[in-house]
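To assess whether ligand presence alters the predicted conformation, the chain was also submitted together with cobalamin. Input:
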Amino acid sequence: MSLETIYEAILKGDAKTTAAQVQVALDQQVGADKILYEACIPAMGEVGRLFEAGEKFVPEMLISARAMQTAVNLLKPHLALADVRVVGKVVIGTVAGDLHDIGKNLVAMMLEGSGFEIVDLGTDVSPQAFVEAVRQHEPHLIGMSALLTTTMTSISETIKALQEAGLRDQVKVIIGGAPITQDFATKVGADGFAPDAGSATRVAKALVGAA
Ligand code: B12
């Protein structure tokens, strides 16, 4: 086993080899976070780079995403070391028009592992669905993920919908996704931004006063 083998397997979209090699790595006591951050996530970054360069196409992105998902499923129990103390409730989803969910799922997983109760609305979540979920679940935090420059606007639309529903003051908003920056977060009036799942946990805890 080497992290390189896992990286290559995800890049190729070979879910079987990915699963087998992740298991070997875990058996050899390689840390789950090391496997995730040094093999799996860089592989997805490379998939994106090759797609942008016209060397990979949507179906290939999809099979790499599936291989990544098998890795995440195996890593999950090792990453999410359950902290029984509930520090807050988070409603999380990928915004309207956007189907990317690997990053959102990782963030949800890490938040869950650090004591948050998670209500996952899935992908392509409309501003209205976020508003309804806030009414129904009364979370401390809303997490929105956007991976496309074209769906970043759904974040501001959702924040606007929360304001119009009179709910904005009841909930903190944390956002993320590859095209999201702190500048963008400030501009749209989000309370927090994090570039990755690890820092998402820190920011979320700070927002609910549990840091
Ligand atoms: C896999 C993938 C797909 C898969 C998604 C499968 C799935 N179930 O998610 C499929 C094949 C479906 C797909 C489709 C498309 N994709 Co795509 N995709 C990717 C790819 C290669 C990887 C994304 C990924 O999973 N990364 C790994 C995860 C771990 O990283 P992450 O998502 O960034 O998440 C981390 C942080 O951003 C952060 N984070 C994420 N969410 C949140 C939320 C909160 C609250 C916080 C705090 C933090 C946070 O923490 C995460 C963990 O560390 C990216 C390339 C890239 N560099 O991002 C392109 C990419 C996002 N896709 C792209 C495009 C263009 C598309 C399509 C439009 C292609 C097409 N022509 O159809 C469609 C759009 C479909 C749609 N409507 O959503 C472009 C977007 C370009 C742009 N500027 O908008 C990218 C950047 C590729 C590229 N370089 O051109 N895609």
